Automatic annotation (TrEMBL), chain A:
Signal is among the record's keywords: yes
A biological process from GO: peptide transport
A Gene Ontology term for the protein's cellular component: outer membrane-bounded periplasmic space
Name of the protein in its database record: ABC transporter substrate-binding protein
Keyword Metal-binding tagged: no
Molecular-function annotations in GO: peptide transmembrane transporter activity
Membrane spanning residue stretches: none
PROSITE patterns: PROKAR_LIPOPROTEIN (PS51257)
Limits of the Solute-binding protein family domain: 66-426
Length: 511, 297
């Protein structure tokens, strides 16, 4: 009876809207939370890079090692100021024009004039030495420069992509897929580019649809409507693990959920307080109960995929409320009858901001609120826009911020460390008001170290000091979860989130 | 109207907490790339340091020439973005209204014809249940039923007619849950009125009495109520568009608030305002046509 009633309503509505039955398409359908708002790589390059429309001079492998992209090799002067890139031959843009040094110079000059996650004044000049060689001169020595050129904002576009005002009117890159349809901010349709320089794509058409909510995306793949969905929330992962229509892929990525600390704020200036806050965190509980993932507790800033910057010998981070209480006592913060700690008449009240775009952050923040209450800390949590973090850093009002810091924007951590950990100014998404002259000078000298062993040893020494001094408090490493339909073969997740690796994918024929 | 809506939007957005340049930078470049440097670049590019009155008069002079400006986030002309989004929202709103009419009228009349009967009570319980659900939750329930269990419809998306069914049904059901109760009350009033009883006593059949003296009189308060319901429709559209990944103006509007995208907000509010005026005028015209007594006086 009920089923029949549903059928009647369905038929009525189908007639109303001219419904067609779902087709068994050979189009790969994918969905994620990213909203492509523009064709400009500076604004929406992260989606066009993931869709393999645009490519950069330098590429990166799963372990963060640089590898040739549109440049087959590169070299630099001894002082790391002059960099020469040798371009890959026989590469054509989607508009069929050839990729040569002039096109690369034009593209990079425009890219370097726009906001990007690296210092704006770094590049002094980009010149074409000949048809296939480009030289970039920097304003100062910069050892991790090649890794900057993996960032999507430096993608190489055809000269015909730009109008006279250097705005992008037609996105013509060099990737295995070209843009066929663009409906900002909800859909990008791409088709296979026949003249791609590398291994051609297998699936001829891919459509990306923005799925605003994680719940909706999970249901899209569980119902068989979509082949791959990215960025699942923990609750949806549970649902999909029991579904036969999708497999969950979990990949550890170079992103850490951490607490940014304003070390110039009186209550947080004492390292004992920061250590107590860190010891009071039940990381295992957060990992297994909130994020539903095992073994991602962060005992240091960088995760296991970050090469020498990760110290595998460090013991796991375990909650120790007793030790945390002892440290606060030592620091002079004493508990009163209400359970809140006080020092010189002031209560240990802290404000923490976090943001809504990553749904798990607010849940983790409320867990921290509870865990820190056990050691007498009164934590207030404020939901904000992500921009409140750099804004609070700039005006000095921020006390604590819970955030998911992306370390893949510039794959060589040296770039991030030089920007964030070499002065008391810190970084928008890094430390704030933290002083450690020994780390500052050791880091500043690091780019000059040529010997690999010495370099690794100095990195370990620096990270040891940072992990002890806690200018930021790591909570958990980030596990990216995606769901994939059974008909999709050769799926893999790029931990550096630069590519959806669509060109590797094949689709099983419908049985 | 355009001036008042635009001015109010401008004042409200300027009084929201937080630095506009940072909010715009976050929407433009994404959470991972928002920084003081990108916010400074946005501030310089958009002249956000100039006094608010200068920005306001710049907008006002553009409005006089029918130029709504460019989105601060995407850089595309606001008119272009609104055209794209408004088409989808209107399609969804019209279909939702149709669905609500198709559902609410038979149920309301059935309830009104037999008040306090088992049918009336069941419809009342059903309506209360549907109305008690937030639109978001109702949408998820329908997704579970039609997309997951029965596998008849897609969960979300757009581009094909079948993508429209679930969002339209969600909104339509939510609207019908109230309007069927108004139709019921109106039906009871009309069926118990002296003129209706007189028509029956003078020997007209049940059917022709209903057609000649019932429908028009029942419709009057219902159509007026549907005008008021448009406000609820807009509220529901924002949530439904988000759940079903529908590319409409409601979703665009909510993102413009987060991004402090003043030109988009002013444009969207302006379009909403004009739509309200146009639809309310349409409702008034319909009511006047149905009940010409006021016109004669």
């Amino acid at each position: 009876m009920f089923r029949n009633l549903c059928l009647i309503i369905f038929i009525a509505l189908a007639g109303l809207t001219g419904c067609s039955a779902p087709d068994s398409s050979d189009t790969l359908s994918i969905s994620g939370p990213f909203e492509p708002i523009s064709l400009d790589p500076a604004r929406s390059g992260y989606i066009f890079s993931r869709m393999q429309v645009i490519e950069t001079l330098v590429d990166i492998d799963n372990k963060g090692q640089l590898k040739p992209g549109l440049a087959t090799r590169w070299e630099h002067s001894k002082d790391n100021r002059v960099w020469t890139f040798y371009l890959r031959p026989n590469v054509v843009f989607h508009d069929q024009s050839a990729m040569n040094a002039d096109a690369v110079v034009n593209s990079l000059n425009i890219a370097f004039s726009k906001p990007a996650p690296y210092p704006q004044d770094l590049v002094e000049a980009v010149t074409a030495l000949n048809e296939s060689t480009v030289q970039i001169t920097l304003s100062r020595p910069y050892r991790p420069f090649a890794s900057l050129l993996t960032n999507y904002t430096t993608a190489i576009l055809s000269p015909a992509s730009y109008n006279e005002s250097q705005e992008i009117t037609k996105l013509s890159g060099t990737g295995p897929y070209q843009v066929e349809e663009f409906q900002p901010p909800h859909r990008v349709g791409v088709t296979k580019f026949q003249n791609y320089w590398g291994e051609p794509a297998h699936v001829s058409k891919v459509v990306y649809t923005t799925g605003h909510r994680a719940e909706t995306r999970a249901l899209m793949v569980a119902s068989g409507q979509t082949d791959i969905v990215y960025n699942l929330d923990a609750a949806s992962v549970d649902l999909l693990k029991v579904s036969k229509k999708a497999k969950v892929d979990s990949t550890l990525i170079p992103r850490t959920i951490l607490i940014k600390v304003n070390a110039s704020y009186p209550a947080l200036a004492d390292v004992k307080v920061r250590q107590a806050l860190s010891l009071a965190i039940d990381r295992q509980g957060i990992a297994t109960k909130i994020l539903r993932v095992e073994d991602i507790e962060a005992n240091q800033l960088f995760g296991p995929s970050m090469g020498v910057w990760h110290d595998a010998t460090l013991p796991p981070a375990e909650q120790d409320v007793k030790r945390a209480n002892a440290l606060l006592d030592e620091a002079g913060w004493l508990q009163d009858d209400s359970g809140i700690r006080h020092k010189n008449g002031s209560p240990l009240k802290l404000n923490m901001i976090t943001y809504a775009n990553r749904a798990e952050l607010i849940v983790i923040a409320t867990a921290l609120q509870n865990q820190w209450a056990q050691i007498g800390v009164d934590l207030r949590v404020h939901m904000e826009n992500a921009s409140a973090i750099p804004s609070g850093h700039a005006d000095g009002t921020l006390q604590l911020a819970l955030m998911a810091r992306n370390f893949a924007n510039i794959p060589d951590p040296l770039g991030i460390m030089l920007a964030d950990f070499t002065s008391t100014e810190g970084g928008d998404w890094g430390p704030m008001g933290w002083q450690n002259p020994s780390v500052f000078s050791a880091l500043s000298a690091l780019p000059l170290v040529q010997d690999k062993k010495a370099y690794a040893s100095q990195v370990q020494n620096i990270m040891h000091q940072i992990n002890a001094d806690l200018p930021v408090i790591p909570v958990v490493f980030y596990m990216q979860q995606s769901a994939v339909a059974p008909r999709v073969e050769n799926f893999s997740f790029d931990p550096y989130e630069r590519s959806f690796r669509l060109s590797d994918i094949t689709l099983k024929p419908a049985s | 109207m355009a001036w008042s809506v635009g001015t109010l939007t401008f004042v409200l957005v300027r009084t929201l907490p937080g630095d506009m340049a940072y909010k715009i930078a976050a929407s433009r470049y994404g959470d991972d790339a928002v920084s003081t440097a990108s916010a400074a670049a946005v501030r310089a590019e958009l002249g956000l340091d100039s006094p608010a009155w200068q920005q306001y008069f710049h907008w006002l002079s553009n409005l006089i020439t029918l130029d709504l400006g460019d989105s601060l986030v995407s850089g595309a002309p606001v008119v272009q973005e609104l055209q794209h989004q408004l088409g989808y929202t209107l399609l969804l709103a019209v279909c939702a209204m149709l669905v609500s009419v198709i559902i609410a009228f038979p149920l309301g009349i059935l309830s009104g014809a037999r008040p306090s009967s088992a049918v009336d009570n069941s419809i009342m319980v059903g309506s209360t249940f549907v109305r008690a659900q937030p639109v978001f939750s109702l949408g998820l329930l329908l997704i579970f039923l039609f997309a997951m269990e029965l596998n008849w419809l897609p969960v979300a998306g757009f581009g094909e007619p079948r993508h429209l069914i679930l969002p339209a049904l969600t909104l339509g059901l939510s609207l019908a849950a109230i309007s069927n109760r108004i139709i019921r009350s109106s039906t009871i009033n009309v069926l118990h009125s002296a003129y209706y009883q007189f028509a029956r006593i003078k020997g007209m059949s049940r059917f022709s009495t209903f057609c000649r003296h019932g429908i028009r009189n029942i419709l009057l308060p219902v159509i007026a109520f549907m005008g008021i319901q448009l406000i609820g429709l807009i509220e529901g559209v924002i949530m439904v568009e988000s759940v079903f990944a529908w590319p409409g103006i409601g979703h665009g509007l909510s993102h413009a608030v987060f991004a402090r995208d003043i030109p988009m907000l002013q444009g969207a509010a302006l379009v909403f305002g004009l739509m309200f005026v146009a639809l309310n005028t349409l409702i008034d015209v319909c009511c006047a046509r149905l009940d010409p007594r006021g016109v004669r006086q």
